[in-house]
Amino acid sequence: MKICMVISTLLSGGAERNACMLANHLVKNNDVHVITFQASKNCFYYLSNNIKVHNLNLLKLSKTPFAKIFNFLKRLNSIRQKLSKERPDVLISFLETTNITVIMASLFLKGIKIKIISDRNNPKKSERPLLNLILKIIFYRFCNYLVLQTKGIVKLYSFINKSKLKIIQNTISENVRVKKKKILNKKLKFISVGRLEQQKGYDVLVKALYLLRKKNVNFECDIYGVGSQQKEIKKMIDQYSLNNHIFLKGVSNNILQLYHKYDLYILSSRFEGFPNSLLEALVARVVSVSSNCNFGPTEIISNNNTGIIFKNNEPKDLCEKIHKITSNKKKYFFIRNNLEKKFNLEIYNNEKFKKWKKLIQID
Questions:
Q1: Contact present, 141 and 117 (Cβ < 8 Å)
Q2: Domain limits at 42?
Q3: 85: in domain
């Protein structure tokens, strides 16, 4: 089958990583093309040489409303022309803005048997929630399937026929290095991964670690990511005199090889679509503490069984949960052993790929 996958960029990100993994899996028995809006040929993640990549150079800055409309129409036309030329059997798109654009561009094109779109985030937290909702109500009905990642998010798409809604959680890279040593470091080592944005709740994390330090707990916490809140987070670290305990490490393209070095993964997010980094940490068998934010964590972690859940936006509760699990070795290794049983990488990924292939109607 000829399969075209469309995504805005192939830079770092959860959707980008999963698009690449799906493409790599499907290309084993199919003709796979990836269409992006970027100009460069750079791809942050591994992509098989058998996959044909088409970079349309459509990421233009719109300084005026007129330019925004012009660029949007140009994007529609470019995508439609490319799809007309490639004539795929299956069309798969990722992320809501791209999904809306691709569905519009592919309307009434002949030859496309199956159209699958995949929303990855909390739709209520998009940049233009009302406009995107209206466009989704109008255009999402033209897809065959809408792939979502959690039961919570499915409830937000009541305007879509239930038969079209499918839950397929993210796959995990086979490059995750698994933690084998069943010990705690003398100086506890924590890790958190995500963009330095208000969504990720790093202010909550810094406050919690300040409270933890007041309990004379000896730790280091590495935060991997970049974003618009970097200066504010650094200022908080200085304010709480945590410079020797919290370190902003920037982006690492080797993050999957780093989880195993840490005792605890912490997800302090206020909201999520689906927290890829949390799943990666669990697969690496790193005990994790996560907020009970919408959406994802409580569908991934069984509290006190495969992880620890704390109250969203509550630094004190986060501090207490970190202190409790790291000071109770019996409980800590009980959870660690459960991760080994539940998060088997090969079995987990194969289940997800089978669901995708069923939608694409590949035996």
A1: no
A2: 2-168
A3: yes
